[in-house]
Amino acid sequence: IVDDDIVDWSNLQRQVLFAEADVDSPKVEAAAKYVAEHNSVAEVVAINERFTIANALEIAADHDVVVDATDNFPTRYLINDTCVLLGLPLVWGSVERFAGRAAVWSVDEGPCYRCVFPEQPPSGAVPSCSEAGVLGVLPGVMGMIQATEVIKLLLGVGEPLIGRMLVHDALAQSWDTLPLAADPTCPICGTDPVITGLPEPVQEASVPEIGPITLRDLLGADRVRVIDVRTDAERDIVSLPFAEHIELRAVHIDRIGDSEGRILVLHCKSGARSAAAVRTLLEQGYTGEIASLRGGIVGWVDEIDAESPAY
Questions:
Q1: pTM of the prediction?
Q2: 129 part of the active site
Q3: 21, 123, 215, 252: which one has the fewest Cβ atoms less than 10 Å from its Cβ?
Q4: What does each C-alpha distance from 28 to 18, 35, 77 come to in angstroms?
Q5: pLDDT digits (tens, 9 = 90+) for 236-295
Q6: What are phi and psi of 99, to 5 degrees?
Q7: In the 8-state DSSP scheme, what is residue 20?
């Protein structure tokens, strides 16, 4: 088990490995303790480190299968590339709100992760579980699917999810299977690969930011225009009364229009999606003064309006 994080209260509603007593403990140690208490003959190696290009190949080498249970795109691409270079099957799963997906990436028999998702999304383009939320039972449901695939691979039985993606809609309680194909032009597993070693993580240019106190002062001087790029569901929890609403997926320079000399400030929950929106507008040629609200509405509530609800 590889992880450098600690158990947080917010983990408890979707994690069966952790209990309240584990809060603030390293996740790998809490997970290893749980397994030991339930199966004394299971051997668990807990690596309290972040999985990076510096240690990925060494950690994954000499294993039979790798499980991706991560929640961010840079690590997902790193795990995929590591498994391709080592020739290891990768059991992948992801969850978001009420939906889950699972697949087995295997270069020998099917596509790798890059075949299906060739470009890493910009930071903030896809909300994390902490931002978008996730139905508490869903990680357990998809985790059991992943565990089943691991057992099938180790025993050589059944038909693993190679060349197929299992898609679960918890609200409709439906299961669909999508066919997947290897991409011969894939940069790492294609016929003429250009990635022959672990690539450096994609580094994105920083964007201009302003803090909540500065935003408050600009509002008092009527020198700012604020746009909320969150979803309707998030706005129902808490919103800034002076902010316009244009959801991230709809942010475009043509829709933004002219801010009439005011500073354009975009905000989301914590700042990641609004930073992505700022990058999008700058790439589209926006020439006015623009910034992302540092810390998002969470930062605003912490520093300016403690009476408003947080989430």
A1: 0.76
A2: yes
A3: 21
A4: 10, 11, 22
A5: 999 999 999 999 989 999 999 888 899 999 999 989 899 989 999 999 999 999 999 999
A6: -125, 150
A7: G
